[in-house]
Amino acid sequence: MKRRSRKSIFKYFIWNSIILGTLLLSACMPNVSNELRTRSSNNQTGAQNVSVGQGYILADNPIILGNNANISPSYNLNKFLSVAPITTNSYLISKNDCYFPTSLTSKECFSVVANKDSLTPLQTSTGKWDYRAESPEFLQVNTFYHMQKILDKFFVDIRNGYNTYLLNPAIFDLSTPNAVVRNDSKYEMYLKEPLSIEADCQEEDNAYYNSAQNKLCFGFFADSAQMRWAQDSTVIYHEAGHFFQHMQFNFRNLSNPFNPARPRLGNFGYSEASSIGEGLSDYFSYYVNSRTHFAEWAAGRILGQSRPLKEDDPVHISALNTSSNGRLSYPDFLTYSPNFPEQPVEDEHYAGMIMSHYLVALTEDLMSKCGYTKDTSKSFVMFLVQETLAELGDLSTKGSNNGAIGSINLSSTYALDWVMKNNPVTYRSFMQTLAKKLKGTVGNPSINSCRGTVYTKDQIEKLIDDYGLLLFRTYNEKRNHANPVTNQNTLVTTTNRNKTTLISKNFLKFDPTVGAAYAYIIDNQANIYSLVRDLVKEAIINIDSQFANVPYNNGNGKLSPGEIVGVVLNLYNDSNSTMGGVQVLANDYYNLDPATKKPCSYQSTSSTSDKFPTSSEGGTTCAAASASALTDFTPGCFIQTTESGATKWVSQNTFRNKLALDSSMCIDSTKPEECFIKAIKGADQAWFSKIDPKKNWMKTLTSSTNNTTPEIKASNLILYEVSKHLPHGTVINCRFRARFTNCDDCYHDSTRSQYDFFDTDYNGDKPFKILNLQMTVLD
Amino acid sequence: MVAFTLSYFIHNQSDKKITNTHQIETITYKKEKDRKIASYTTSIEEKIDVNILKRNKNTKDIEKKSLRNPNYYYYKNYRLIGANAILWNDSTRQLKMENSESSEWKNQLGENLLSFQASDTKVIIDEEDNIIKVQEDSGIYLKQVSVHFLFSNGETRAFRALVNAENGKIEESWDGPIHEKKTRYSFELNGLKDANVN
Asked: Measuring CA to CA, which residue among A445, A439, A449, A441 is closest to residue A472?
């Protein structure tokens, strides 16, 4: 599709100005109204009925406005335009309502431009914003209107929620920082700069939020010259939702002196955090328009991927309904697409529907049981989401305004790794924290905000269980300071866990089927090149230029010296229940004894599954009972060697010494412990949405009707750099740490009354199933 | 078209002490057809393209100033990060450093970032802060940067990172994009049949 150049945009602007000026001569100028007025369907042009500060918008997406799911992508959208207040500024820049941490005076919250080539925001010479629907100017005005709408609602709700619960911090310890809320009518943006929005950006089939640029981008469609993402208000709310989530997730990080990073909810590709983020963004659409379906036009019309938010939506399969047994429950519906229900699909947008459906159900349950209006209930649920995200994303490790350092995410030094990998946001951690917030507010007898009483603990737990999400045994109020005797957590009532299934980690294993491969190797040069290219530009990994063009990749399906290889584990669920949120970690952890430099494990404890290597094979028991939070990070790959006629497993540095290889020849000369093989940071974790009982992941995602096998995604594999100095025939053992979200003993410490493991434990092997994979290096 | 002059506003922060004023060049690296990497001072137009500079009626590029944030900890004009940062705040003791600073870090970073990208791809590296990450009783010199890719088809991508100030290697990255688009791959899978497991 041909994109507009700056010159053509300028011409377009001049042409529109001429038309606009002509039309102005006959325009009538009614008073500015805050209400939308739908224009007659045959009125396609003109500035009639548009006053200064007003403009044309699409009040909802064209499918809703036309009440026609099959409306043509090239339909004349002028027939659906409404008049709405835009701005009395001469530029399409929001009011100076926002404060930023570095500003002493308020500034604009956001501005809208067409695309990155636009030199300034759109300017009006007439004071009106009445552009035809097919113009790029219209997209900017439409985006502006809906962005202002959600922004106002979001910040007014923050103020209301805060004022309700801050009044007595002893009753409820907020995670939202005090500074977020202002006492005047302004907004505390909690970003460094105003948001910049490109309403017609140069992205094919895409819309995105990029926090590094403070930018929202709404692109175009390859298969339709007329359609744009910004024509669909639900998409504007959804993408704005990603922006707001990022802000909520980082509410406690902007002024954190110890760590400048700001985590995002999820990664490139599939993960549970990504799925939750997508579900939350769908809820942001409902939050504004109260409709329980998202993106009928932008995601639905061509791509066939619009999404419902409630089980009674007609697009759903008939088995789903709003009864306890009919909910869209975890983990069975993680790979369910209502648009193609016969084809399982691993996609964060669909997996996020469990979150959006739960939040809508909670909204309606609070209306029903507590007598809230829909608006009040939506605002309150958004407050709970905000509180949950602010706590989980806290790199300062306090978690709340009264929290102690070290409450969450280990320590400031390593907090980003803990949030993104070692103890990331999952359906379990999100629901556990949200349940705590529910219990502390509407469930709090000191507040009695539910018809003069409380939304009970049973009510909290039962609705969560309807969605299969009662994955936690305590509310974990004390987090890392919990002690079953002196610092107790509230226990979940076991009898409320009916639909939720918890499984032992030992049921997760390599596929035991005779003839099945334990893992798959991707070392084709073109495959790896395109994968690395994408992962670098998406800020997932970084590769030294010495690997450019991946010259040693030979596509032989083995580990070969000098290659970058992808490893996909062939994991199997040997239990009788579905596993959800399977995560494999290949990052550094405490598995090398600091004194002897031997591979170690907690062999003396019953909770470890790692008995390899034994002492006769070169292993030892880890000296400490649990990992240190500060120093114990070592790679998980060891190398086989022969000592006194016996086969032993040794660290990479020990092997390097045996070869008398100078450390300057290592993959990273400063890190001899990963001299020969190194899991690439960022691509050192893999996610699998779910694994059905007695199946591997591939069979779980294979369509029963057409036998289509699933695509492997970047998020399914772990990337390794292999040294070109690694001798042919060398055998490598890599220890992967695996777990899944509905795993019982991956999160609950049986030695401490089933309380959650401490953050330090996630630097060891106790909460994980250890999977040892031995691979031979062959050229 | 009116020729716009562009200006980058450093906010008026009279309450913050300016400790260091110097020109920090934002550099554009471009992958040429012959796969060589060219570099030059980033143009104002490129800075607007990637939102380093705000669109404004009277925008012009001015020098950046390093400011002391009263909420942060410092050691010899470097911002300190890490759980032990507070121990070294304005300390007169000598912090042992595990690396040194090199002027080559930015070039190395630019080369690494472009090594897998197509020709005509540009990457803009904008320096944001000078940092020392405190680890136990030693430190590492880092640069906080924002990295912006400009692709020939008009797409952009960006993220922030902490970069080793000696060799340009990225230690941490964040602030990457969240997309609606699904990226698809057709990987050639090879079953690892001769592997052993424990």
From this structure: A439
- Using the 3D structure, point to which of A231, A248, A279 is the last residue of a domain: A231
Question: Considering its fold, how many domains does chain A have in total?
Answer: 2
For A206, counting Cβ atoms within 10 Å of its Cβ (0-12 exposed, 13-18 middle, 19+ buried), the class is: buried
For the cut 60, the answer to whether the pLDDT of residue B188 exceeds it is yes
Mean pLDDT to the nearest integer, B49-61: 68
| Contact criterion met (CB < 8 Å) for B174 and A259 | no
Digit-coded pLDDT (tens) for A532-545: 999 999 889 988 88
Contact B188 A3 (CB under 8 A): no
> Burial level of A74, CB count in 10 A (0-12/13-18/19+)?
exposed
Q: Do the chains contact at B83 and A772, CB–CB below 8 Å?
A: no
The secondary structure of residue A503, as a DSSP letter, is B
| Burial of A574 per CB tally in 10 Å (0-12, 13-18, 19+) | middle
Q: What is the value of ipTM here, to two decimals?
A: 0.88
Task: Locate A391 and state its tokens.
Answer: 């706590």
* CB A439 within 8 Å of CB A490: yes
Pick the closest to residue B147 from B106, B184, B119, B116 (CA basis). Answer: B106
CB pairs under 8 A between A and B: 264
CA distance A592 to A589: 8
Residue numbers of the domain that contains A149:
1-231
Q: What does A624-662 look like in DSSP terms, one character per residue?
A: SSS--SSS--B-SEEEEEEETTEEEEE-HHHHHHHHT--
Residue B72 within a domain = yes
Contacts of residue A269 in chain B, CB cutoff 8 Å?
Answer: 183
- From A216, A231, A246, give the residue that closes a domain: A231
Considering only CA atoms, give the Rg of chain B. Answer: 20
In a domain, A657, yes or no: yes
What stretches of A664-730 adopt beta strand conformation (E)? 677-679, 685-691, 695-696, 718-722
Residues of B in contact with A102 (CB under 8 A): 11, 13
Q: Chain A: give the shortest CA distance to residue B103, in Å.
A: 18
CB of A637 within 8 A of CB of A734?
Answer: yes
Query: What residues contact residue B42 under an 8 Å CB cut-off, 6+ apart?
Result: B25, B26, B27, B28, B52, B124, B126
CA A496 to chain centroid, in Å, comes to 28
Asked, for residue B31, whether it belongs to a domain, the answer is yes
- % residues pLDDT > 90 (chain A): 76
Per-residue pLDDT, A11:
37
Q: What is the pTM of this model?
A: 0.92
CA–CA distance from B139 to each of A337, B81, B87 (Å)? 50, 9, 12
User: Which of A121, A194, A543 is nearest residue B116 as measured by Cβ atoms?
Assistant: A543
pLDDT bucket at A281, cuts 50 / 70 / 90: very high
Are the C-beta atoms of A592 and A761 separated by less than 8 Å? no
- The total domain count for chain B is 1
The length of chain A, given as a count of residues = 779
Question: DSSP letters along A684-700, please?
Answer: SEEEEEEE-TTEEHHHH
Q: What is the pLDDT of residues A412-460, one digit of tens each?
A: 989 999 999 999 999 999 999 999 999 999 999 998 999 999 999 999 9
* Domain limits for position B77: 26-174
- The tokens describing A101, both together, are 């941490």
